[in-house]
Fold:
Amino acid sequence: MLDPDILDALRAIVGPGFLKTDEESRIAYGTDALKRGTPADAVACPADSSEVAAIARLCTARGIPLVPRGAGSGYTGGSVPSRGGIVISLERLNRILEIDEANLLAVVEPNVITGDLQDAVEQVGLFYPPDPASLRQCALGGNVAECAGGPRAFKYGTTKRYVLGLEAVLATGEIIRTGGKTVKNVVGYDLTQLLVGSEGTLAIITKIILRLIPRPPFQATLRATFASIEDAVAAVVQITRARVVPAALELIDGETLEAVARSQGVRLAPEGTAALLLLEVDGVAAAVEEEATRVGQACRDAGATEVLRARDEAERQELWRVRREISMSLKAVAALKFNHDVVVPKGRIPQLFELVGRLRREFRLRVPSFGHAGDGNIHVNFMVDPNDQDEVARAKAAEPALFQGVVALEGSISGEHGIGFAKAPFLSIELSPEEIALMRRVKDAFDPKGILNPGKIFP
Amino acid sequence: MLDPDILDALRAIVGPGFLKTDEESRIAYGTDALKRGTPADAVACPADSSEVAAIARLCTARGIPLVPRGAGSGYTGGSVPSRGGIVISLERLNRILEIDEANLLAVVEPNVITGDLQDAVEQVGLFYPPDPASLRQCALGGNVAECAGGPRAFKYGTTKRYVLGLEAVLATGEIIRTGGKTVKNVVGYDLTQLLVGSEGTLAIITKIILRLIPRPPFQATLRATFASIEDAVAAVVQITRARVVPAALELIDGETLEAVARSQGVRLAPEGTAALLLLEVDGVAAAVEEEATRVGQACRDAGATEVLRARDEAERQELWRVRREISMSLKAVAALKFNHDVVVPKGRIPQLFELVGRLRREFRLRVPSFGHAGDGNIHVNFMVDPNDQDEVARAKAAEPALFQGVVALEGSISGEHGIGFAKAPFLSIELSPEEIALMRRVKDAFDPKGILNPGKIFP
Structure:
């Protein structure tokens, strides 16, 4: 527990109403979508970057762990304490400061909800592409800290491609500004991109300058079903060879479809479907028409059992429904989900699904898998009953086997969720001791006392 | 000068044929497109990353400056010694190792010429967009080290958007691999993007994994001329508001056009042209048609005196000719060029040209300016006769005025060329002492003895 004088100092910084020490808050801020973590010793809700800086200085001086937190929707425990300390919740920094149409950018505070920014910019004909599944709950600061992806990353790239500049507070209390409002900047090191994906271990993000693009005026959405994963993957390869870049290219396997059907009590794809592709192309009308035709043809060439195309927005939403229902539906299958977001070079998705099939058999696990096929980024879920100790043990044993298999395919153990503490034990499967040591020295350069989000990323 | 035992050790590493110590070589490798620098004490040409690592270890052990060099086409002295030492020329690492059509990537050694890679990937229907003006001379390793841009950066982004992974050698001799062959990777810190644009001060790049995209099948190229800079800039704003993203949106001012006309002995634009826009849109045929129409209309709405559209490849090359002739033509105007690549938020280009006009009058200088208007990135050139000491002094005095003015517009002092030693004295105009101190600590994390490219970036 924290000394009373520390609590007094925190209270003096944020004001008495914005320091939470009650048990309910300490537990609530001690967990995120991973559902693990330790309670916070206290939760501070600063009003601005100067209060953030004062808290950081206090924590560095007293050696207290400081955990930055946005909306708490992460899957790897990035926003929760791993060993107590202070959670600094950025919930009051939640304003869209600027939508600048002339310069195609937005300036936001970290706790703006991603979907809210998207709605706001689309109203003026602009577009912020990154679309993590949690976009109605997650905050942009967390998106930046984790480098969030989403279906549209295939065409538009992940969060990092849209971050032009940051204001951030170092553990030692300095407020720094990186990058800026220009789309090009080569002055000194690119600290902006270093902070993107640094999971709150290098600095606390207090302001974000985001690049926007014109909103694509038209979309076409298609759904193709296949009798085997191999056929679906062949279609993905065909589309790449046809040199079309869909805005989204999502793959859902049969086990996942089955879970959705059971949970919803309704069959959303023809019986015997082993894999489903959801495809969206966007752009100016004529280009959309041409690309939709080519994508549909590529699916048929690869042996699709059915290719549907949405004729209006209602049908489009209906096609996307199966994708959106996955998360809820899997919860109905089993109470515990070991949720992995492995990624391989896109041409190696067949081998990735072979690997998943092998793990399913060897470890006797349910492994519904789905995700961003265009990026080679597949969500591989080990579903377990937490009361079945043997199943839990088998799932834990399957984790390093999955990661080793992915790295052997020249892939990566995480494409979207980050490392947090959930994957920290596996870091050395992908990175060499020299690379980890170098990253630790970079961490020291930002946070000499190691107070920022300790226990994350590094094993 | 270096001790003879060091030369012996270098010779033992690279083989006697690949260590150059003759005066001609030492001088040749002591200069780049900036035309300043000090001669190398020796030039080592390693065959592979293990020889690079051995040289780095030697230099760290003996405290000898080590300057990595690609094709030597940079504008800020990044590839030349500022105080002697060893130049490590990567000229033997010049192979395209892989063009992987299934995964849309290429693996190259650092000294592959940028244009050669583009030709090779375009033959299989793929595309590597970054197109610095020097693309027939410059090397990809240098492009990565400096984060090169070019006209197509407006639509496609600069080099950083295409670098997926690197092999690099630290000053202490460790060989690290960052990123990889996947388009997503959030495992640990993004050292790949930190190395992009680090100007050879953090590590020596020995292998590059580049993302490719499908080659756009069609282009349309337009040239619009204007009676004033203001009208041309209004057209740029109109195009942004029309939500079109041309592949290129280049602006050339009247003073530059005049120089080209005089040097070529031929007028390439109507008399009285104060500004010229070169525009290119690309994509599938129907989209190109629609966007070309909208772009042409936006130019006419802004008061263009003439809008031409190339009807075939020959006419397209003719329209681009004026842009390509600029560099040569300016050499004919004056022997010395203080070549700056300032950048502002694109909506502030009118204010940037006001600033340039003020400098032109106040410091009585010829300042032909042109560049990537879509990105707000303008090449502002102070032309001087090196024998006119007063003019040289006026140009030197105008430099901080330009940089301060740009930063006041929320711009940056360099959008493409980097800092090197040419702009190092001006770094603190843009960055705070805290930010510079943080960058120095990052440098220390990579290069504890400070041997890699000393005298660059930092004042």
